[in-house]
Amino acid sequence: MFQIMQICATQNCLRAIANRSYCTPVVNIFDRNVKRLQRERAAKSADVELYDYIKEEVGYRISDRIFDVKRVFTNAVDLGASRGYVTNHVLGETVKRLTAVDLSPSMLAHVKGTPGLDFSVREMDEEKFDFDPASLDLVVSSLSLHWVNDLPACFRAVNKALKPDGVFIGAMFGGETLYELRSSLHLAEQERRGGLSPHLSPFTQIRDVGMLLNRSNFTMLTIDTDEIVVGFPSMFELMWDLKGMAESNAAFNRPLHISRETLMAAAAIYKDMYGKDDGVTATFQIIYFVGWKPCPSQPKPLPRGSADVSLKDLGKLMDPKHVSDKK
């Protein structure tokens, strides 16, 4: 029976993690061993490249953002590298040395890099990010952090490993990801079973990412969001692709199966509510973020009260008559 990717039903869990005291015990939602096995299975599939379309596109966009930073990085890490969706687009002229780390060794075996790029691979759980303090000047992560149980600890570990003025560039699935599948399953289970099963997990909202980064000592934050809409013949092809992406359910309390009756009802609801002439669509919301480790050389805001123009006078400054009078 298909395992279903966990989709966000509520963001309250993540907000609670972001606001909690650091001494509060972490409640593990995801089984990291199951996630490793899912990635291993996907990596060993003969047609694994067929399911790369979302992660390949986002990885390319992340690498493009690296090029936007006008500097050469001497030591970088691709956190949750998977099959090298970022590493395979990074140029040696921009990054001198790059280490691709992932939970799955079979995924790392697919990393190819680019000509001239000095890269290596290292098996490492994203939750156990372990590099020497102040040893990196760039950390990138593309679509892997949504399976991390303790994001604040992960972000703090990244911040600790970065040099002053080092940068953390990443992308995560946002809370609106696969809202079509989420609502279809909700309605089908309520109709057929009179309740909801825990197929769903908390994805983050854009405001939560900023809060987590800020609490982890990152500064000069840049956060934006985008949506990628993909068409499928039906809900079942979407579910099959999620399995091929290694994005199946990995929660400790996940149900072992979904009844055929519920699946057929969900597929009918999906088609009725979100169907097109040639099938259905699925939305993937991507949250991109950039955070910098503080450094004395970074730009600082001017002191309060140092402005010599009042905001209420901005209209006058833009008035052509006012400008001509000053001349």
UniProtKB/TrEMBL annotation:
The keyword Protease does not apply. It holds the Pfam family Methyltransf_11. Residues 77-169 form the Methyltransferase type domain. This is Arginine-hydroxylase NDUFAF5, mitochondrial. GO terms for molecular function: S-adenosylmethionine-dependent methyltransferase activity. Keywords: Methyltransferase, Transferase. GO terms for biological process: methylation; mitochondrial respiratory chain complex I assembly. PANTHER family: ARGININE-HYDROXYLASE NDUFAF5, MITOCHONDRIAL. InterPro entries: Malonyl-ACP_OMT (IPR050602), Methyltransf_11 (IPR013216), SAM-dependent_MTases_sf (IPR029063). Transmembrane segments: none annotated.
